[in-house]
Amino acid sequence: MKQQPAQMRWERRTQTPLLALAVAFGIAYAVPIVAPDANSAVRTACTVTEWVVWGAFAADYLVRLVLTPNRWFFVRSHWLDLLAVLLPLLQPLRLLRVVATLMLVGRRARMAPQIQLTTYVAGSVVGLLMFGSLAVLSVERDAPGGNIKNLGDAVWWSFTTMTTVGYGDHAPTTGLGRVLAVGLMLSGIALLGVVTANIAAWFIARFERDDVEERRQTAAIAALTEEVKALRAEVGRLTGAAQLPVQAAAAPDRPPV
Question: Whole-model pTM?
């Protein structure tokens, strides 16, 4: 049995711990925003958890970089992981650590393409709604003149923004909040395009399979028809050859003239 590369073995072993760290980071990120009046011990614990998770992500990236045979290709193909490691201090960009981890876990998972794409889309929608709401709430709640003051307002705004409906009853007033709004709108359009393309590809593949099956059945029927014709011809030939001796034997002998 062929031995797996060291990088693949490392990724397989760290898949579950990384997913657990992603969940821990999501909770640590959400608690201070949802409960701004939490005591200092809770806030400190959340901050420590975020930094511990960031350190784990950074260590995982460095280990994979060392184990990979082509480091430059690894850096180019895992740019989101690198971005999540290098930009830990900016509040909205801290969400990239969760996104990078979920993408990493998804890349490592062995699933059928359709199931994998469906999982990506569903996870992306839930993740963007959840963390987009938390991010905009964190920057808009204390903004002068802002109208996104609680989690319900933030979730409603995220829904209307991602679906590009935009009722206008809630809207960000800060520059950072508007940047988040642009990101959610573009993400919503991209996800809608992915879903539409996936549905169209499924129908096209189904039609192609049906067409191939129909052509196969048509060819089989044509071959069977030709075989039946050949059998009929052979039966007719054999029947005609058998009837000649019978007719000759059954004919009466005529007296000589």
Answer: 0.56
